[in-house]
Amino acid sequence: MADQQFDSALFAALAGLRSQPGQRQCEALHNPTPCAWRDHRADHLALSDLLRRLNPRDTKKNLNAINSIVPELQEDLLSSVDQPLEVRRCPQTNRDYLLCDYNRDGDSYRSPWSNEFDPPLEDGTVPSEKVRKLEVAANEAFDVYRELYYEGGVGSVYFWDLDDGFAGVVLLKKGVTPGSQSSGEWDSIHVFEATDRARSSHYKLTSTVILHLANQSDALGDMDLSGNMTRQVEADLPVEQGDASHIANEVYFGKAKDVVGELRTPLSETNRDRAAQLEMIKSMQK
Amino acid sequence: MSSTIEFASSFIEGAPPGELADVVADVQALTSEEGDLIPSLAPAFERYNEAQLTTVKLPGSSQEVIVSEFNKVDGNRYFDPESQTSFEIDHITQLDQTASAAQSAPLESQNAELIKSLLKSLGIHAREHYPSCSYGVYPIENDSAVAILLVANRYSPNNFWNGRFRAIYQVPVSSSSTNVTGKIHVDVHYYEDGNVALNTTKSVDLSVPSVSAESIISRIATAERDYQEELNRAFVRMAEGAFKGLRRQLPITRQKVEWEKVGGYRLGQDISGGKGR
Q: Quaternary structure (chain B) (predicted)?
């Protein structure tokens, strides 16, 4: 999940970048990802409900299954479902970058380091010169952020033009010790839109974190904690944010632990108290 | 069509605790153009019910009994030794959670006395530790062993979480000591603004000095307690270990970054020297 540092980073970096001269943008809101869902609205609702229920560890497998049942939904699937990010190496710079729908054109992906498509495209969609400058600066800034907080991993930032501003996505991926007794994988996807208003800029940020943690030992057996969470923040600068890293920690570890406690109570005394308490609540509800 | 049934079946069997009806509704909506697919999914519903230890109410009773492979009589008929009743369920419409066609079915087993004592001890153990649960003890393997089952469900869809604890043990009945083998499964689903799933499986193998209900249930109670404690430690380990290994709470400089100056940072210089401030 994005945290206060991250939100501050994004907003402050954007504000800093955008206060440079010559960054005026034009008007009228334009959404670069057209909504193709209307034709299959009911299907889409059922699809998103189903994916919210089935095990998040199996999202890729489930998507393939749904795609085989309802092939018409394929475009929606690609653009609306968050999956662990894939890594590719930029042939020009020999640096790794992340793939997503926002740097894809046909079957090619654009490297944030070289601005070139792989496989090469003659007329691939690239940001305007101004926005590409911002994109380069943002990649430098978030490379620092990634090294400070993740000590490794891969990051990429992609920007694109809007009629009255610009939008972008910040991607981070990090895995630890896959295959060993304890492994983890973190993928975060932060999509933002920055639109100009009369006196300030309006920012909208949607953050998704996909987390997979697995743990195995004789005493514990097999334990798998997987998930994805999405959170939205909208702000006119200056902004105040909550610390969502805590939220992620709380949800992934605190909530799951609490529910196990609901299923089984370790102390029978507690159990009796709880039973009495529940009985009282029930009788009051009658 | 056949692959549609295969995939739809995998969704049914993958439904989280307490959310089977929701998954069924989604599958129906996504497959509406193929006609009513649900009757073709009967085998998947049966596998789900037996693996997840689905509970149903006996007719005219508030008591919930377990459906599993261990107490299956034949077809859709299952057996509950405690109430000495056999009952039928419709695997597809069991969503209303009521059994039908109940019949008296006396417990016929050479281990009937042991089964009755186990039910009594297990009942005490269950009431002490599981706020809402169902359990059962059944003769298995040609009456040479018994199966001990316990399932605890807590559903809180208004708060976007549901959970299930299942314990499945098998005990060969012999004249002297024996071994209790089995598995404990914990499944938790939390889905507010996302989809987070905890799935655990723990194998147990417990030696029991004598084949008595007290010693068997006492060993099981200890194993379940130890497992819950280990699970709680694992949450802490994950939060402290794997999670922090993925992402630090503070940067390696141990100071929060002044983001206004982020453009001025250069990797390998300011950072390694800790000159962020």
A: Heterodimer of an alpha and a beta subunit.
